Amino acid sequence: MDAAFAILAALIVVSAAGAMFLRNLVHCALCLVATFGGLALVYLKLGAQFVGLVQILVYVGAVAILILFAILLTRSGEPAGQGRMAPGWPLGAGVAAAVFAVLAAAVSGSFVGTRSAGLVIEPAVVAIGHQLMTTYVLPLEVLALLLTAALIGAVIIAMKESK
Amino acid sequence: MDDGTFAHIAAIDPDQALVAFKHYLVGFAPEALQPLVSIVLTITPILLVFPLLFGLTTVIERKGLGRIQNRLGPNRVGLPFTRTRLFGFGQFIADGLKTLTKEDIVPRNADKIVHFLAPLALLVPVLLGFSVLPYGRNMVPIELDAGLLFFFAVGAGTELAVFMAGWSSRNKYSLLGAMRAIAQMLSYEIPLILSAVAVVMITGTLSTTRIVEAQLAGEGQWLANWHLFTPWGLAGFLLFLVAATAESNRSPFDIPEGESEIIAGYYIEYSGFKFALFFLGEYLGLFAMSGLAITLFLGGWAAPVSFLAFIPSWMWFFLKLFALIALFIWVRGTLPRLRMDQLMNFAWKFLLPLTLINLVNVALWHYLGGGWMGWVVCSLVIGVPYVWLGRALFAGRKLGPRTYRFAT
Fold this sequence. Notes:
The complex is a heterodimer. Chain A is mostly helical. Chain A contains 6 helices and no strands. Chain B is built from 15 helices and no strands. Chain B has helices at 6-11, 17-26, 34-68, 91-101, 112-129, 147-155, 157-168, 172-203, 208-213, 231-247, 259-262, 272-296, 313-334, 340-368, 371-394. The relative contact order of chain B is 0.11. Classes of the chains: A mainly alpha, B mainly alpha. The A-B interface holds A 24, 26-27, 30, 33, 49-50, 53-54, 56-57, 60-62, 64-65, 68-69, 72, 122-126 and B 111, 114, 144-146, 149-150, 152-157, 159-160, 163-164, 167, 182, 186, 189, 205-206.
């Protein structure tokens, strides 16, 4: 573990904790953005340029704005007279722990841990593009269709009914 | 070049003089510090040149707008304690000193931390965008495989900064301005990226350096291979330029600021140097966008015709940058501001379909292999939808003189 990773890990953990514990929802969302950014930097540090940059483009650029708009449009101001913890927090903690256990088991059981470091495909972006256009072209098209359907669905929900 | 002498540097090609000078300076540092010194020597010129260019641009813009509006613009401030006026080009120094010494007022109800962080959150991503632009031959701060993706990725951070500024000020005009700005930036980001994708399709790379290299003149060619000189490139450049204008909140897309409607948008509650930082961020964003437009369509640092190649490559970059800045000032002085609904309609119903058609156009150009056949087909493929879309969107609208409902 080197210094850069330590700094990034601290950033991610602190901002994730902030996203959970801060009182103001907008502050929580901004902390979450810092977490997304920190994760992107970890990807970049691991040499996964494409994943890291897309993480910034999609999460910091779009998802964060979506979350902030959702907060602003649904409730105004800070919740009054509520504890820091939601009433059902032990249940939530249990679910989180279970998810972590499953992920940890899956990751430690996979070949990731045994693989030697320094496996970098050059240039990664070109390789990803080729794979998407050849091996994974059908999943890509299915995904595109699904997203288009979701988009049309959103437009239909938002559309005013004409009578 | 580590053992190069100064005379040696002066003797070499002016094109590479700056690069050689940097190597010469790095040579003085001890071995262990050389990477660090090299980084500092790369960053410092960017941090000096572009803010200085911002200062000059503010004066040029005010003078240019003044001329367009039949007045003189700033022409008084020159060197202090002398009668030298420098045609008013001392104005930006006076403005800078004024903003530095002004009181920094933070509204009582403002969210202090977010309010403080917002100008920085705007400036940092904008400055990061400069790190992948090739300013000349061998003059790119960082060589990234996915340089173009990096540019757009860091650019996405500016929307968040705008939100932070608008929300933390606790002012309804600020929030309105921020909402307008975000809606506009999100909408115009799509045509912006899609028109850049056209270039990626033809060059097959996301590296900004290799995109510029693909536009160099070949052996014995007098005209460079700029993407601007192809039908899809011309269309792409114009689409990119419109989207870039909107993305950097420039007139006629300055709805987020909208002085006559919402005072100054998301930075009403900013004063003193924080306001100057927003101003700086906005202009640096414009320069970065122009730099990217130059890289993608105007051949980067390449000379347009081969007999002008004796002018150093970095000079070409800055000449093109000045030309684009002049164009932006001209547009600002000429076109009135759009309305919010016009803005959205323009982005989604006009720009987006045209950028998508332009992608098809690139593929056609590639398979036809250029030539006059490519010119005819590609011009028709983009030209017919342009005319048709433009007419269809105007159909059934009365375009008479403007009527005012609420004012007489």
